[in-house]
Amino acid sequence: MENQEAKFGFTEFAETWNGRLAMLGFVIGLATEYLTGQGILSQIGIM
Length: 47
Fold this sequence. Notes:
- By secondary structure, this protein is an all-alpha fold.
- It has one domain (about 10-45).
- It is built from two helices and no strands.
- The chain is elongated.
- This is Chlorophyll A-B binding family protein.
């Protein structure tokens, strides 16, 4: 039988990329706050 892995859902591949992109987004958010001097909420006009 062939090894048929799920293409959708909680797979190791999907979770690895989800973690990588979350870390990238967090670092970009911190850098944006540092460079602009404003938090994310004030940048989008909520506060």
